[in-house]
Amino acid sequence: MSQALVIVAHGSHLNPDSSTPTHAHADTIRETGAFDEVKVGFWKEEPHLREVLRTVESDEVYVVPLFISEGYFTEQVIPRELRLEGWDVSQWDSDGLSADHVTLTAEDTGQQVTYCGPVGTHESMTDVLVRRAETVTGDSDVGDGFGFAVVGHGTERNENSAKAIEYHADRIREMDRFDEVQALYMDEEPEVDDVADYFESPDIVVVPLFIADGFHTQEDIPEDMGLTDDYRKGYDVPADVDGHRIWYAGAVGTEGLMADVILERAAEGGADIGDALELVRERTRGQQTVEV
C-alpha cells in the first residue's frame, strides 16, 4: 500500500515567507524517498487544509501538524478541515504534551489517516533547539560559557504553549551542556525583554520556539531584547547587551533538522520511513537555516 505524508501548518495572508520552512522541510523529506507522496496544507494559504487530502493519491496518509503546542488548531481546526470521522481529542489521551497519534477515516475521500501530535511537543525538538545554537554560533560544541534561553509567547494565549517551552528548557538543562538554561516569554514573567538579568554567562543563545520567522521573531523580540532600536536597521549576531553577548537565533522552525521531528512523528504513527532519519540528520548537519 502506498503511503503519503501531509505536513499541515498555519500559513499567513500577511507574511508570505511564513510558509517557506514548511515547503523546505517537505522538500528535504521528499528527497529521502521515504514516502510515495509528500504534500503540504495550510489554514491561511493554498493548498488549503480542506482540500489537501484530495491532492493525495495514496490510501494511507500520515498527517503531521507543524505547530508548537496542542490547542485550538491541533484539536479542533485541523481535524475539522480534514473531516476526520469520529475525531475526539480524548483519543490522544494527552496531558498537553503527550499527544501521539490516532488513525481515523477521512469522511469524503475514504483514506486511512493517521493524525499525529504537533512537532513542538516531541522530544526530538530539544535536539533541534540545540542545533539552532550550533548553527547561530558556528560551533558544533557550543555550551561552555554559554547560557541558553528558550523563548515562547506566554501563558495567557495558550497554557499548553508554556508547557512546551518549559518541557524543552528542562530537557536542555538536563543535558548539562550549557552553563545556564532559562525559559523566557514575550507576554509573561520572566520576560525576554530582561534576558540579560537572568544570566551570569557572558554569552547567551536565544532561540524562539516558533515555527516560522515573522512579526514576533523578526521585529518584537530583537527590539525587546535591545539588539536594535529599529528592526529595519538589522542587528549584530552576537550583539552586546548589558555586558552580555546575545546570539539571537530566530525561529527554531527554520532549522533544517526540523524535518527529523516530522519524520519521527510519522514513524511513531506507523509509517515505514526506512533510513530517512539518518539521511536527514546527515544532510542537515552544517546546513544553513531556511532563508525567509
TrEMBL record:
Domain of life the protein comes from: Archaea
Alphabetical UniProt keywords: Cobalamin biosynthesis, Cobalt, Lyase, Metal-binding
Keyword Metal-binding included in the entry's annotation: yes
Gene Ontology molecular-function annotations: lyase activity; metal ion binding
Keyword Kinase: no
GO biological process, one term: cobalamin biosynthetic process
CDD domains with a match to the protein in the record: CbiX_SirB_N
Cross-referenced PANTHER family: SIROHYDROCHLORIN FERROCHELATASE, CHLOROPLASTIC (PTHR33542)
Protein name in the entry: Sirohydrochlorin cobaltochelatase
UniProt organism field: Halogranum rubrum
